[in-house]
Amino acid sequence: MAKVNVYIDGFNLYYGALRGTPYKWLDLARLCRALLPSDTIQEIKYFTARVSARPSKPTSAHDQGLYIRALRTLPNLTIKYGHFLTHTVPMYLATVTPPQRVPSVPTSLGQF
Asked: How far, in Å, CA of 58 to CA of 48, rounded?
């Protein structure tokens, strides 16, 4: 049995697993216990950034606030806030050169 700390990226959890599902009210402590049944979970750190209301989702900030209030009731969970960047970052296309073919080497050295 190991003692573990769990780090959860809220953005990736939501957009990678929960968005568009009925499971948005996920109990993170229960999830961690289910994933690590033989370990002792010392602390869960949940990393997120505050969202703002958008015309397409006017309740998103309120909904996130409710979820964060629910998470605060978990005894070993800490919420860490960061900043979500919404501006575009240019990425340059890297050209990949295919590897050169290495001439085959005979596998048999013959008889000595």
From this structure: 19
